[in-house]
Structure formats: structure tokens, C-alpha cells
Amino acid sequence: MLTRRIIPCLDVHRGQTVKGVQFMDLQPVGDPVQLGQLYAQQGADELAYLDISATVESRRAWEALIRRVARQLNIPFMVGGGVRAVDDVERMLRAGADKVSVNSAAVREPELVSRLSREFGSQCIVVAIDARKENGDWWVYTHGGRRRTAWRALDWAMEVTQRGAGEILLTSMNHDGSREGFAVEIVRRLAEALPIPVIASGGAGKKEHFLQLFRQGRADAALAASVFHFGHMRIDQLKHYLKENGIEVRL
User: Fold this and answer.
1) 57-115: per-residue pLDDT in tens?
2) Which of 3, 16, 20, 1 is nearest to 171 (CA)?
3) What angle do CA 224, 134, 53 make, to 5 degrees?
4) Second-level CATH architecture of 5-244
5) I need a surface site. Which of 11, 77, 147, 214 has the fewest CB within 10 A?
6) Which one from 51, 88, 130, 176 is the annotated catalytic residue?
7) DSSP class of residue 2?
8) Where do the domains of the chain lie?
9) Candidate list 11, 45, 88, 220, residue with the active-site label
10) Is 236 considered catalytic here?
């Protein structure tokens, strides 16, 4: 049976972990390395560090943070934010990241996903998809959820899979920060259609939401932030709950 993963997400803004609702109203919640260490001790399978204010000026600080994380944590971690070219991915992997996610740049130039997978291997490349449900369908957004594209979420996920993406990170903008549950419907559509793992993000509020995601949504992994940052649940307790309810997890 496939082992499901729990992945805490740390959105980083100017060197601090922050959390907002639907990508707005950011609040500082702590040092990204210290939080990462706490989650690793609690049993996180991986970590995700996303630079949500990536700029050319902050690039050196971001790489320095990646090196700190790599030195002080012993679990895999993904990084993303501001990835526009092969060189960006190379720098992040050289700094110590295990995987790199790409979002807006891939939509702007789909061939980038092909180049990245050829250069570094599919196992290193995660395509992040920010999606919003409108008029009964799920549409892909870019630029931090501010700009709608012409891609439907499932079509785009299939496109990047064919181009060599190793995983899909799907964030529901409708659910992000709501703590009312994951977007199980669209997650399941992707999970059933794609041959690669689907990570679901957006909406976690209680343990039952994770159980529903794995049972009904058939996700390979769940990514969450505020429920961990604000102490609503511990990762080890969540995993024991999932195990007791028939979901295979690493304890």
C-alpha cells in the first residue's frame, strides 16, 4: 500500500515564515529553520519552503536560507518561488534543496518543464498549480494567484506531466486558509488521471480533512501550513489518527 505523506508548508517573506488567507493578509509565524526542525521532530515526511516575495534582490538571502535548512534538517525539502530558468533550479539544488517547484514561468513557457526534467531529472521537478473554481470548472492562476490563464487545471496538469514533471502541487485558491477542508473533487480528478504523485494544498483545518483527502481525493500527499504553525494539531498525532483509520503513513 502506498505511504501517504504529510508536508508542512513554510511560506517565506523577507526571511520569516508567514501565513495568510487566499494569499493575502500575511502574518509572521516564526523562523523558517526552527519551524522546520520542529516539524521534522514531529514526523513530517518532507518540507516545502516557498519564497512568496521572490525578487532578484532577495535571491542571495533565499539561497542562504536554503543552505541553512540543508545543514540543519535531515528530511527532504522542496523550494519554490521566482523560478524562471534552468539556472534558478541549479542554484537551489546546489544550495541543498531536494526538489524545486515551478509555477508561473512554466505557464508562460511550457517548454521550461521539458528542459528542467531533462537537465535535473523528473524526481527534482514539481509543477505547482494554483487553481480557482469558477462557473463549475477549475482554472489555473499565476503570479501569486492574481492572474487567470487560459488553462483548465486538469489539462495543464496533463500537459506538464507529459513534459516530465515529477509531481503536481495543487493549491485550491477557493480553500486556501479557510480550514474548511481540501478541494477533494479536483484533487481526485487529477489523481485518477495522472501517473505521477499529486500533492494537495489549501483548506486543512482538522484531522478529518486529511482522512477525507486520502480516502476520497486519493492524494499522494497533503500540504498544510496554518494548522501546524498555530498549533491546531501536531504532525505525529495526525499521523497516528490516519494510521488508526487505515491510511498508510510513516510513523
Assistant:
1) 467 778 999 999 999 999 999 999 889 999 999 999 999 999 999 999 999 999 999 99
2) 20
3) 45
4) Alpha-Beta Barrel (3.20)
5) 147
6) 130
7) P
8) 5-244
9) 11
10) no
